[in-house]
């Protein structure tokens, strides 16, 4: 595992964006696994700027998202689809057939999970971006999730709903369930880049670096992957 301590959020975002840019440069039909949340916004902006001033084309790139809330229509401003449209799909000029995200409104959610997992297997993810929750969750895989779990429906912990409430009118408006790639699905990626910023993430980053693998800290599953780069700012890295 490579650990890069960035000086601040901006530096973390720049380093992560440059890694993804290099991957696209090396292979224009690369498959990116992407994440939502506040943390990747700076990285997406930086990559958008790099792309805007570069001859690199994005028309062969494919993106695969980690998760989506259940019960929010894609048009809802708080759906992860809306987030991606705003932060990535539009600025990177991606067309619908390049962008994959679980359907949290599927009539049969079990089937949707199977479909999404089959697609991950069919295409393969070259590099997966991850953020992390305060309690060490990756995607929406909360503490206690099995490390071999595949794409699944999960119930969100109250603490996760509270943390994500900042994007909603109130905590009650945050959906209770989501579809998420499982930890087993995430570990299938050829390369993983995890970014974390701010003191609230320091304990989770500590767990990744210093604890044994434990389902109490989903982030520790990354210890079994051969190609992980962790990019944290000083505040998130202060305990390591
Ligand atoms: C959500 C997402 C995660 C993300 C986490 C942390 O729960 N499902 O993928 O890592 O939030 O988000 P933030 O970056 O806003 O702290």
From TrEMBL:
<dbReference type="InterPro" id="IPR004547">
    <property type="entry name" value="Glucosamine6P_isomerase"/>
</dbReference>
<dbReference type="InterPro" id="IPR018321">
    <property type="entry name" value="Glucosamine6P_isomerase_CS"/>
</dbReference>
<feature type="active site" description="For ring-opening step">
    <location>
        <position position="135"/>
    </location>
</feature>
<dbReference type="GO" id="GO:0004342">
    <property type="term" value="F:glucosamine-6-phosphate deaminase activity"/>
</dbReference>
<feature type="active site" description="Proton acceptor; for enolization step">
    <location>
        <position position="67"/>
    </location>
</feature>
<keyword id="KW-0119">Carbohydrate metabolism</keyword>
<dbReference type="GO" id="GO:0005975">
    <property type="term" value="P:carbohydrate metabolic process"/>
</dbReference>
<dbReference type="GO" id="GO:0005737">
    <property type="term" value="C:cytoplasm"/>
</dbReference>
<dbReference type="GO" id="GO:0006046">
    <property type="term" value="P:N-acetylglucosamine catabolic process"/>
</dbReference>
<keyword id="KW-0378">Hydrolase</keyword>
<dbReference type="GO" id="GO:0019262">
    <property type="term" value="P:N-acetylneuraminate catabolic process"/>
</dbReference>
<dbReference type="InterPro" id="IPR037171">
    <property type="entry name" value="NagB/RpiA_transferase-like"/>
</dbReference>
<feature type="active site" description="For ring-opening step">
    <location>
        <position position="142"/>
    </location>
</feature>
<dbReference type="Pfam" id="PF01182">
    <property type="entry name" value="Glucosamine_iso"/>
</dbReference>
<feature type="active site" description="Proton acceptor; for ring-opening step">
    <location>
        <position position="137"/>
    </location>
</feature>
<dbReference type="GO" id="GO:0006043">
    <property type="term" value="P:glucosamine catabolic process"/>
</dbReference>
<protein>
    <recommendedName>
        <fullName>Glucosamine-6-phosphate deaminase</fullName>
        <ecNumber>3.5.99.6</ecNumber>
    </recommendedName>
</protein>
<feature type="domain" description="Glucosamine/galactosamine-6-phosphate isomerase">
    <location>
        <begin position="11"/>
        <end position="228"/>
    </location>
</feature>
<comment type="pathway">
    <text>Amino-sugar metabolism; N-acetylneuraminate degradation; D-fructose 6-phosphate from N-acetylneuraminate: step 5/5.</text>
</comment>
<comment type="similarity">
    <text>Belongs to the glucosamine/galactosamine-6-phosphate isomerase family. NagB subfamily.</text>
</comment>
<dbReference type="InterPro" id="IPR006148">
    <property type="entry name" value="Glc/Gal-6P_isomerase"/>
</dbReference>
<dbReference type="GO" id="GO:0042802">
    <property type="term" value="F:identical protein binding"/>
</dbReference>
<comment type="function">
    <text>Catalyzes the reversible isomerization-deamination of glucosamine 6-phosphate (GlcN6P) to form fructose 6-phosphate (Fru6P) and ammonium ion.</text>
</comment>
């Amino acid at each position: 595992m490579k650990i890069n301590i960035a000086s601040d959020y901006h530096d973390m975002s720049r380093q992560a964006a440059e890694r993804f840019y290099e991957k696209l440069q090396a292979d224009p039909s690369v498959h990116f696994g992407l994440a939502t949340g506040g943390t990747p916004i700076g990285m997406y902006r930086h990559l958008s700027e790099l792309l805007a001033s570069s001859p690199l084309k994005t028309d062969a790139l494919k993106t695969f998202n980690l998760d989506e809330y259940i019960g929010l229509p894609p048009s809802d401003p708080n759906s992860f689809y809306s987030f991606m449209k705003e932060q990535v799909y539009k600025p990177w000029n991606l067309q619908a057939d390049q962008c994959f995200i679980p359907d949290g409104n599927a009539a049969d959610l079990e089937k949707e999970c199977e479909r999404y997992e089959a697609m991950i297997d069919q295409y393969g993810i070259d590099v997966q971006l991850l953020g992390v929750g305060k309690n060490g969750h990756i995607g929406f895989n909360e503490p206690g999730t099995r490390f071999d779990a595949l794409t699944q429906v999960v119930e969100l912990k109250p603490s996760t709903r509270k943390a994500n409430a900042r994007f909603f009118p109130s905590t009650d408006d945050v959906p209770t369930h989501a579809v998420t790639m499982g930890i087993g699905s995430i570990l299938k990626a050829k390369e993983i880049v995890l970014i974390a910023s701010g003191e609230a993430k320091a304990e989770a980053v500590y767990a990744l670096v210093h604890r044994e693998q434990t389902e109490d800290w989903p982030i520790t599953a990354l210890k079994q992957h051969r190609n992980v780069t962790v990019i944290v700012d000083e505040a998130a890295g202060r305990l390591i």
